[in-house]
Write a structure and sequence with these properties.
Layout: E1 10-13, H1 18-29, E2 35-38, H2 46-51, E3 60-63, E4 66-69, H3 71-81, H4 92-108
Parallel strand pairs: 1-2
Antiparallel strand pairs: 1-3, 3-4
Helix pairs in contact: 1-3
Length: 109
């Protein structure tokens, strides 16, 4: 499967962030080319403050200059935008469970 080229797709993330890793994994599974921008969370960049001015956290996916925040929302967006195959279940109840369990597991870590 050829990697899909997406112009202007950026991911603002941090090495120590499991939430950033979740989004990176989804992009890798979908084979979507993107620019990864490493953030220093002690000295936040102007770009991070521009795209996530309320929470000032990573990850932030920027697609066509529109920011998407919160890792589970980003993964769902990736799954719906690049439809080479689905990484999330299509049945509504199973999809709800797929959203619920990762957030619960990361909160207890």
């Amino acid at each position: 499967m050829a990697a899909e080229q997406e112009e202007g797709l950026k991911l603002l993330g941090a090495r120590a962030s499991p939430y950033s890793h979740r989004v990176q994994l989804a992009l890798k599974l979908k084979e979507v080319q993107h620019e990864y921008l490493q953030e220093n969370l002690e000295h936040k960049s102007q770009q991070l403050l521009k795209y996530n001015p309320i929470h000032k956290k990573v990850p932030v996916l920027v697609h066509k200059e529109k920011p998407i925040i919160e890792s589970l929302v980003i993964v769902e967006y990736i799954d719906e935008t690049w439809q080479s195959y689905n990484i999330l279940p299509q049945e509504p109840y199973q999809r709800a469970l797929a959203r619920f369990w990762p957030s619960l597991l990361l909160k207890s870590a």
